[in-house]
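Record type: monomer structure entry
Structure origin: computed from sequence
Chain ID: A
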Amino acid sequence: MSAEDVKETTDLRVAGLKALRAALPGVVPAEGDLDMRDGKLGEDLVEIGLSTVWGALWGREGLAPRDRSLVTLGILIALGAETELKTHVRVALTNGVTRDELAEVIYHSAGYTGFPRAVAARTAAREALGE
C-alpha cells in the first residue's frame, strides 16, 4: 500500500467516524478513536464499513443526511435487512425524519417490495423505537 493509499484510507476513516458520530450521537463516543474489533471471525467488517459506507458514502456532500436516511431505509426494506434497518431507523430520527415519515416509507415500500417486507420493516422499526 502506497503512502497515498494509506492517507486516503485514513481520510475515509476520519470522515466515517465523523458521519457515524453525527448519525448516532450518544451511541458512538464523541471523541477519541473508535475500535469496534472484537477478536472474532470477520472483526474487520466494521472497520471496512466505517471507511467505505460511512466515510465514502455518508461523508459525501451530494445528499443531505435526511435524504440519505430515506434512501437507505428504502433499500434496507427492499433487501429485507431488518437488523440494519433497526439501526437506520434511529439514524433517520437523528437526521430529522419524523415517526410519521418513517411510517410512510414503510407504507410506500409495500407497493414496491411486497407486503411481507413492509410488515417485517414495521416490526423492526417498532423494535428500534421500543414499541
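Annotation 1: The helical segments are 3-23, 45-57, 65-79, 82-94, 99-113, 115-128.
Annotation 2: The radius of gyration is 16 Å.
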